[in-house]
Amino acid sequence: MSETQNEAPAQVVIVGGGVIGLATAWRTLGRGLTVTVIDPFPAGAGAQARADAGAAASAEVGAGQASRVAAGMLPAGNEMMYDNSDLMNLCLASRAFYPSFTAELEADAGLPAGYRRDGLLEIAYGDVDVAVLNRILNFVEPLGVKVEQLTASQCLELEPELAPEVQAGLYAPEDGSVDPRQLTAALVAGIERLGGTVLRASATEVLIDGDRATGVRLADGRVVSGEQIVLAAGCWTNQLKGIPAGVVPEVRPVKGEVLRLRSERPFLRRTIRGLVDGSSVYLVPRADGELVIGATYLDRGYDTTVTAGGLAQLLRRASTLLPGIGDLEFAEFSAGLRPTTVDELPVLGATRVPGLLLATGHSRIGIQLAPISGDIMAQILATGEAPELAASFSPLRFS
Ligand SMILES: Cc1cc2nc3c(=O)[nH]c(=O)nc-3n(C[C@H](O)[C@H](O)[C@H](O)COP(=O)(O)OP(=O)(O)OC[C@H]3O[C@@H](n4cnc5c(N)ncnc54)[C@H](O)[C@@H]3O)c2cc1C
To answer: Per residue in 357-378, pLDDT tens?
Structure first.
């Protein structure tokens, strides 16, 4: 017998405490199952917890955790949806679910979830950008998304800090943003209040007995047993040992850099997504005066360095649209790794190994998709049945 004290078993064990693992855990607890989440640095734990963890925070798994860095923009339309109606339906379902998901979470957690439905303004700067706005309008309007076309002066009325050269806008009054740091902190609190466990530890291996997944081994040798094991470890999902070949698809890291500025009062009234000569930039304001500007997109492996070029790119685009941002205080420039599959679609559901499930691959839209992904996973874990909405996102599509 091992000398290492094992952890209490749970019906569901989730490896990864980013927004996807946490949303899955909270929804699953709501269905009455017992849940343990394993993560050395669960999202929402805050920068201090990472700093306290010292060198391990930068060298081990989780440095570059996407959910901590993400801006939390929640647009109805997204270029990833244009060619895939299943992804579009998933995004629309998550969009419709966001208000009740966050209200219920706040009640469970006793903390704000950081959701704002106070409008999203898309701005075009040059002629080519106006054409893109028209494409977005033609795409989202038939889906029942409320959007209004705005002239330059109407845009300036809504957001006085915009550069006067702005050409046109598209305003979606029912869209908005969420603060992923508040959302994940609320999820951790909600999980703990519902009796779930968030174990600050790193998993190294999936344990398989016969043909069935039965638990995970932690870096210190302890074992956490479970009836169902969910891998939600972002771009680290296929680094765990013990999994038969071909069961977990490639989930590669795609780096994104994000700039955070600060002012005493919010610089913007609502989220702005801008196009500057064909390149996009978005700015997400928080109530406390933080302004999040994103994001770069770099396919360079597990690299979390932040670059002068990335900073210059974001500042150039953002200050073309909003010249006044140069006066704001610098707060943070950080990089996260978007968990991205070969077909750039999420992976949600059971694998061919009984008891082993996946919830990852959300790439650029994991904050948008967290409510619906958590709910889909909870349904699968509680009933064994995947909802129709999830059919295209099964891990089995890669086998
Ligand atoms: C710059 C940037 C901006 C973005 N902006 C937006 C946005 O505006 N809107 C939007 O919808 N999406 C956005 N995204 C995408 C979104 O952040 C991701 O899709 C989402 O956060 C993925 O969540 P996750 O839980 O799958 O992964 P992560 O947040 O990366 O979490 C994975 C977790 O697994 C843990 N882990 C890894 N290995 C192990 C192990 N062995 N044992 C235990 N735990 C482990 C890690 O510590 C980590 O906490 C952005 C992403 C980036 C990088």
So the answer is: 999 999 999 999 999 999 999 9
Residues having CB closer than 6 A to ligand 1 are 15-21, 38-41, 43, 61-62, 65-67, 69-73, 202-203, 232-234, 236, 240, 256, 258, 294-295, 336, 338-339, 360, 362-368
Tokens found for residue 277: 């000569």
Q: Which two tokens stand for residue 204?
A: 């190294």
Q: What 8-state DSSP symbol labels residue 9?
A: P
pLDDT in tens, 239-291: 999 999 999 999 999 999 999 999 999 999 999 999 877 788 999 999 999 99
CA distances from 183 to 231, 271, 329 (A): 20, 17, 24
Helices (H) then strands (E): counts for the chain: 10, 19
Three-state secondary-structure class, residue 63 = coil
Q: Residue 389: how many CB atoms within 10 A of its CB?
A: 18
Indicate the DSSP class of residue 32: T
**How far is 48 from 45, CA to CA, in rounded Å?**
8
Which burial class, exposed, middle or buried, applies to 181 when counting CB atoms under 10 A from its CB (0-12, 13-18, 19+)? buried
pLDDT for res 55 = 39
Q: Whose CA is nearest to atom 4 of ligand 1?
A: 70
The string of pLDDT tens digits covering residues 133-148 is 888 888 888 888 999 9
Coil vs helix vs strand at 364: helix
